[in-house]
Amino acid sequence: MSATLGVLLRQLQPDWSISTFERLDNVAEESSDAWNNAGTGHSALCELNYTPQQADGSVDISKAVAVNEAFQISRQFWSYLVEAGLIANPRDFITPVPHMSFVWGEANTEFLRKRYEALSAHPLFEGMEYSEDPAQMAQWMPLVMQNRTAGQKLAVTRSLNGTDVNYGALTRLLFGYLASTPASTLHTKHDVLDVTKGKDGLWHVLVQDLRLNTQRMVKARFVFIGSGGGALSLLQKSGIPESRGVGGFPVSGQFLRCKNPDIIAQHHAKVYGKASVGAPPMSVPHLDTRVINGQRALLFGPYAGFSTRFLKHGSLMDLPKSVNGGNLGAMLAVARDNWPLTKYLIQQVMQSNDERMNALREFVPDAKPEDWELVTAGQRVQIIKKDPKKGGVLQFGTEVVASQDGSIAALLGASPGASTAAPIMLTVLKKCFADKLLEWDAKLKAIVPSYGQTLANNAALSKELREKTTQALKLKD
């Protein structure tokens, strides 16, 4: 998120100075790191949680359409960077990988069929395929179908427009460009301790150099807090009214990573299933082909866990320190109203390796423990906000919290996260630089050709830009 905003601002306003502070040794070692997330280019092609089934049996595709359009905006932004020569080779961070949804049982098959009928009629989901034929499914996902019990009711959808994205590599490419430009500095091993508004109208940012163990004050007209789970504490320290009543609930994740090259070679897709009852959206099970530093990998998960850390490299005191008089009521209300989630997390934390393998065998019937290892992914912090009726609500997704004067903004939340970095940062520009938008309009349309338009309602433009970005990003094998 921070890298995307920095690059956008550098393109729009080359004369502004931009300083970035990163607590770890290098950028992208937390949530953006390739092993800390599934790497899915979230476009709702396969993620069933974006298409809930209604009480009357119909499938609501409105969120899927919004998520897909957001990803198309990110594709346009990345294509611009490639065409402008700011990124040399798109295959360094993005690879075409089919996206599939896979279900079993009569009710789930009926749901997937209705989902397919609703989505495939929309221009953003053009080319989606559906099958209940075991022979066809065996061609699309041989590892999933190998030695599967005969007679099961199965269904799958496939889209060849899917991608795998190495967000760690992308972040490093963005910061590599940004740090090379005039009036830009990148400071690693620097911890931001406090953010306060000074009497001079500027933000006073207290920064500690962790190498030299020294502190200094940095003054800025605008501050963006894009530090993953660590954003909440800095947002609270800012003291802006918009931060009051906001809390966070951390959820950690684990994956099984395949160690057997022969098994990895048998699968080339991101296959998403349905989440367990009570599971958060980020816990939708999926068998994922990854391409990391040019090497194929295979992951299954996630298995949810719990830690009071807000960052993988954070402190066990992150959650306790985030609780205050303003958000305590909302957090207690969420704890009261979300027992299924609490029960689910307890069950996940208490899982044995045999239970994890049984979950994997629903996707890979022949899975053997010796071929897989457990790895810990990144932390995600779900947003908790006050609610006049319920007292508090737990929100899934991403949200920008900005001050009324637009001088500071923070990014909170989780999935779809990095996939929608470009449109979310356009939201930051609208919230925080409204007086500059007219001046920036032509450049924004050069960076994101659909800027100011809606792809969902424009089939011709949607197809044109999908083809354009497919070519620019080399997404055709």
From TrEMBL:
<dbReference type="GO" id="GO:0008924">
    <property type="term" value="F:L-malate dehydrogenase (quinone) activity"/>
</dbReference>
<keyword id="KW-0560">Oxidoreductase</keyword>
<keyword id="KW-0285">Flavoprotein</keyword>
<dbReference type="GO" id="GO:0006099">
    <property type="term" value="P:tricarboxylic acid cycle"/>
</dbReference>
<dbReference type="Pfam" id="PF06039">
    <property type="entry name" value="Mqo"/>
</dbReference>
<keyword id="KW-0816">Tricarboxylic acid cycle</keyword>
<keyword id="KW-0274">FAD</keyword>
<comment type="pathway">
    <text>Carbohydrate metabolism; tricarboxylic acid cycle; oxaloacetate from (S)-malate (quinone route): step 1/1.</text>
</comment>
<dbReference type="InterPro" id="IPR006231">
    <property type="entry name" value="MQO"/>
</dbReference>
<comment type="similarity">
    <text>Belongs to the MQO family.</text>
</comment>
<protein>
    <recommendedName>
        <fullName>Probable malate:quinone oxidoreductase</fullName>
        <ecNumber>1.1.5.4</ecNumber>
    </recommendedName>
</protein>
<dbReference type="InterPro" id="IPR036188">
    <property type="entry name" value="FAD/NAD-bd_sf"/>
</dbReference>
